[in-house]
Design brief:
The complex is a heterodimer of chains A (about 280) and B (about 375). Chain A has one domain: Rossmann fold (3-Layer(aba) Sandwich). In chain A, about 25% of the residues lie in helices and about 25% in strands. Chain A has seven helices and eleven strands. Chain A starts with 17 loop residues before the first strand and ends with a helix. Chain B is an alpha+beta fold and about 375 residues long. Chain B contains 14 helices and twelve strands. Chain B is globular. The chains are: A alpha/beta (about 280), B alpha+beta (about 375). Chains A and B meet through helix 6 of A and helix 1, strand 6, helix 8, strand 9 and helix 9 of B. Chain A: It is found in: Mitochondrion matrix. Chain A: Heterodimer composed of ETFA and ETFB. Identified in a complex that contains ETFA, ETFB and ETFRF1. Interacts with ACADM. Chain A: This is Electron transfer flavoprotein subunit beta.
Chain lengths: ~280, ~375
Amino acid sequence: DPGQGGPASSRSLWSPWRLLPCEPWPLPQEPLTLPSPPAEQIRVKPDKTGVVTDGVKHSMNPFCEIAVEEAVRLKEKKLVKEVIAVSCGPVQCQETIRTALAMGADRGIHVEVPAAEADRVGPLQVARVLAKLAEREKVDLVLLGKQAIDDDCNQTGQMTAGLLDWPQGTFASQVTLEGAKLKVEREIDGGLETLRLKLPAVVTTDLRLNEPRYATLPNIMKAKKKKIEVIKASDLGVDLSSKLTVVSVEDPPQRTAGVKVETTEDLVAKLKEVGRI
Amino acid sequence: MVGGSVPVFDEIILSTALMNQVISFHDVSGILVCQAGCVLEELNHYVQERGFIMPLDLGAKGSCHIGGNVATNAGGLRFLRYGSLRGTVLGLEVVLADGTVLDCLTSLRKDNTGYDLKQLFIGSEGTLGVITAVSISCPPRPKAVNVAFLGCPGFAEVLQAFSTCKGTLGEILSAFEFMDAECMQLVGQHLHLARPVRESPFYILVETSGSSAEHDAEKLDGFLEQALGSGLVTDGTVGTDQSKAQSLWALRERITEALSHDGYVFKYDVSLPVERFYDLVSDLRARLGPRAKHVVGYGHLGDGNLHLNVTAEAFSTALLGALEPYVYTWTAAQRGSVSAEHGLGLRKKDVLGYSKPPTAVQLMWQLKALLDPRGLLNPYKTLPAHA
């Protein structure tokens, strides 16, 4: 029997609410743009198959952090019963899951992928994993970041919804529970679009949904005792193979210095000289 | 901060901005030799690419020159870990008032041959010679940096937390900064920076830098458990990634900015014995009462350096009178320094006497007369007018 504070009349019809905010495997740090702590430079591997991730500090995708925050807020409002944090990737994922636990998630699931194979795990593979987990754990809501800031694919949430055949509310800037439905306000090019989704559903978070909390010390300590289950994709019957191959990863071309000119006549002459006009 | 490089009468301005070349960098020893006009942040990038960092870091890094840093013996945020420029600078090339080029630009860690002349020029604020090149020892770039932001219930707990830090974190401690509740309120009000922990009378920022992420995380966890368990700290958070760590540092680094939005700011930068640190702030608050808008204390507690700031709607000579010489006499009574890192420049040259005895000032005049008899170098600054 679900606790107090939830949607009123239809409460007894629903199984206990579970929430599954997910993040893709944690990401290498971005290069520093602001001063202070020493910078971590992102480097392309000499064989051009990707970027160097060995020894680079990994952290939670910022949009996924917003998803975790939203999940925890729903739990604090007593609208959901349990928040499970999931991450799919190499061993560094566990640190990220711990951060989610410190923010207020109840338990974690780490779908372990060896580092050597992690490069080939893309949105479709993660979506397959999440779909299977959503079914296994019988969740009512899957919350993800709208996209990962390393590949900017913006596909995992949508694919997960497709595989589960669940409704989706993407680029959410506001999420409200209205009885058995979820009202999602989405940021779209033309402005804001409001959808009503029947649960269970998939929601992906955008920047303006919330400001993630800092994990406080007492919660960081408590998080150490929370459970993280470690499983393999094969335990879920998921095939992680990909039909995509990365052909090459290269640095963007070095920017050459600009040229200053004195007058507009000089500017026109220069543009003609380089064949731009 | 004290008008040391501001022309006030009939001076000619000399800029070393075009002397911005790195002369050499030895990547085993980490010794950098460069011209005085190199910008600190650019030097940091240069040595970072080679696995090192500059031994100092400050808010003005994007524009300050290394020559100026040495001439003012700049302190900054890495002081606790890497020490003073007096230790990290290995050699200088200086042009004297008569045009002599003094080449003391060695890159040796140890050289006890005669008097250590470079120490005269470090911190001399350009009054004894013009620094044209610097040889400086750079530490290896830490592989793991952690930032924790904690709330303390009282100043006694802040001091105990510092002792505990030194004991449990030991060699990986790289910064220990403190700020009071008023500072937090001001950065929230004027800069809309969110308070990351429960409201507390004091906040401390602890940074660790080391070569092993696992080892450092373990030590930090140990410290946090101990501090939380013993009530030294009532709440806290750890920067779990670089952007979080920067946000936490911003709470401390942007206090000056927040103060400037609060009104006219009277700024004091003093060195005091740590036990009496906050007493000056409390005393001043009581003394000024409603005449001041805010009286705040923050700073490099690990270095014994308090930044005391008083804000008011506008400047008033009455308020200045209530502040000075009270702050200076208070500091002098604790045998503290009336200018811990900002120097004397124009604004504090006449208060030198609060922290140095007359015999010391006398010797300073003699050295100045010896090295610059015609008073060409940065006149009207640093030393009080000769009696």
